[in-house]
């Protein structure tokens, strides 16, 4: 019998599978945390130039004397959120010649220096800041404030975020190959060890380049954890349980981001936050002894005795009976080159649409999480709501996929998400600051749509492509998703990079329009619900005929 037939004997998703599923999927929680951690450890608070010769200068105004010195020294500029008001420049100040007369300590313990300014007029030379003071309302310290990744160095912040997603892309490829060659358990354990080695020391880093390198390896290991865990989960349960197992897998990602919101609220220093989310992963070392290998992988590698030992244990825990003797037959599927896609213009177009889908969905999914730190209001609440919207999107996807079909869920999630994000352009520009909750609500609908589309993408692609090229074709789609992930930090930070009202609407505009366009293109794809998996390229070409 074929391997999938064994589930009729041991059960499709019994107590054994549920127990192992939980063990295999727990690392995904920490992969999700690392993916979104940059929202907090690379958070860029309000800031301005530090005033030379002013002892104990702070961003917060301490008293009237302090405010007077700030007003005479710091350049003013138009406030992007309110054109009728001005605010202190983040990057420029007047180059006044100052003489320190005396230092006094006020009642609050703040030491203020009385400065005599020469040439106090608007014709004074304007210079760039060399040091900054930061608003500490939300965070005591972030890597941005520690390393001054602002003004002329503000792109360094985005590059550091991109390094994580670059590592994620490479890890998806290399650790996936290791998992296929040496075992799922080996691949997962290696990913966990790299994860621990790259994340625990991060909080002690002072140098920007070392920080970026460690974040690269954090992304590299997270990819292995997420990808290998997903494969192990799909191999663990029977065919009829895989859709639920796959969608449930996504909710663990949402649980991780929800946990991160709470931890970031508790730990306001980026070093403490990093330790809080990375040290617990040391416990995964116990997986060396408690996590079983994938019995399906063992079977494919002709290690039948090891596979049967695990299957017998599963049957025992599930209170089922595994026949003492039976022969499993490994299906030998003929493979073809991806070039067979070019046999049909229709198939080429649909493949390109799917690749673009994966790129945009991944960019939107990650970009909206990263952009949560740029929305008006409380950063912790915004991120928590974004994470909850993500889980709701996964749950809706799980509830609707088998009822209304893959295509309606796919198209609907992209269009609804895209329209919601496009509407934020108008709410950002024309609604007053006190009503910006409408913008946040619309962005949550966008995140919900992105989550549902992300959940649908893998299932739809695996059902669309024929057996002869399925693994390779889905791998190509996944590669485009990695590109989307690498682009997401730059899209999310457009409002940070481009100043003014135009910059504020850019992230949502790019993500919303992209989602809407690919949603319309997805209408050209066929429905796959209730259809037999295509075996040949001809079956896929004639899918909806």
From TrEMBL:
CDD domains: MFS_SLC22. It is a multi-pass membrane protein. The chain crosses the membrane at residues 20-43, 161-179, 210-231, 243-267, 273-291, 347-368, 380-401, 408-431, 437-460, 472-492, 504-525. It is found in: Membrane. Residues 97-530 form the Major facilitator superfamily (MFS) profile domain. GO terms for cellular component: membrane. Keywords: Membrane, Transmembrane, Transmembrane helix. Gene3D superfamilies: MFS general substrate transporter like domains. The keyword Oxidoreductase does not apply. It comes from the Eukaryota. This is Major facilitator superfamily (MFS) profile domain-containing protein.
């Amino acid at each position: 019998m074929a391997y999938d037939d064994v589930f009729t004997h041991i059960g499709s998703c019994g107590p054994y599978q549920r127990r192992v599923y939980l063990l295999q999927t727990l690392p995904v929680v920490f992969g999700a945390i690392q993916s979104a951690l940059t929202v907090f450890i690379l958070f860029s608070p309000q800031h301005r130039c530090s005033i030379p010769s002013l002892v104990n200068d702070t961003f917060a105004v301490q008293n009237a004397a302090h405010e007077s010195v700030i007003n005479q020294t710091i350049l003013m500029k138009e406030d992007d959120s309110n054109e009728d008001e001005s605010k202190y420049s983040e990057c420029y100040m007047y180059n006044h010649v100052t003489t320190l007369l005396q230092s006094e300590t006020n009642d609050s313990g703040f030491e203020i220096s009385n400065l005599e300014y020469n040439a106090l007029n608007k014709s004074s030379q304007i210079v760039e800041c060399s040091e900054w003071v930061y608003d500490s309302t939300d965070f005591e310290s972030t890597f941005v404030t520690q390393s001054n990744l602002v003004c002329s160095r503000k792109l360094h912040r985005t590059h550091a975020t991109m390094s994580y997603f670059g590592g994620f892309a490479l890890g998806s490829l290399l650790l996936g190959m290791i998992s296929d060659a040496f075992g799922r358990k080996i691949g997962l354990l290696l990913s966990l060890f790299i994860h621990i080695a790259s994340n625990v020391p991060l909080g002690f880093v002072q140098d920007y380049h070392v920080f970026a390198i460690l974040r690269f390896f954090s992304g590299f290991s997270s990819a292995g954890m997420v990808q290998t865990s997903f494969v192990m989960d799909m191999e663990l349960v029977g065919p009829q349980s895989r859709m639920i197992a796959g969608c449930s897998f996504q909710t663990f990602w949402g649980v991780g981001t929800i946990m991160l919101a709470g931890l970031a609220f508790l730990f306001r220093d980026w070093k403490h936050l990093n330790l809080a989310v990375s040290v617990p992963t040391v416990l995964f070392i116990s997986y060396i002894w408690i996590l079983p290998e994938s019995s399906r992988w063992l079977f494919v590698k002709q290690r039948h005795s090891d596979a049967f030992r695990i299957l017998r244990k599963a049957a025992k825990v599930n209170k089922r009976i595994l026949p003492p003797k039976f022969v499993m037959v490994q299906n030998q599927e003929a493979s073809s080159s991806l070039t067979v896609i070019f046999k049909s213009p229709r198939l080429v177009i649909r493949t390109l649409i799917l690749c673009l889908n994966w790129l945009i969905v991944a960019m939107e999914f990650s970009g909206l999480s990263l952009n949560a730190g740029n929305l008006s209001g409380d950063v912790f609440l915004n991120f928590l709501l974004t994470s909850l919207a993500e889980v709701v999107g996964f749950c809706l996807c799980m509830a609707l996929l088998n009822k209304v079909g893959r295509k309606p869920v796919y198209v609907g999630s992209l269009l609804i998400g895209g329209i919601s994000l496009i509407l934020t352009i108008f709410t950002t520009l024309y609604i007053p600051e006190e009503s910006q909750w409408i913008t946040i609500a619309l962005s949550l609908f966008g995140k919900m749509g992105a989550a549902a589309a992300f959940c649908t993408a893998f299932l739809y692609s695996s059902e669309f492509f024929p057996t002869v090229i399925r693994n390779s074709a889905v791998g190509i789609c996944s590669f485009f998703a990695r590109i989307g992930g690498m682009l997401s930090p730059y899209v999310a930070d457009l409002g940070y990079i481009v100043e003014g009202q135009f910059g504020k609407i850019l992230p949502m505009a790019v993500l919303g329009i992209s989602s809407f366009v690919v949603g319309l293109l997805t209408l050209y794809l066929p429905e796959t619900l209730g259809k037999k998996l295509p075996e040949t390229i001809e079956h896929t070409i004639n899918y909806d005929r």
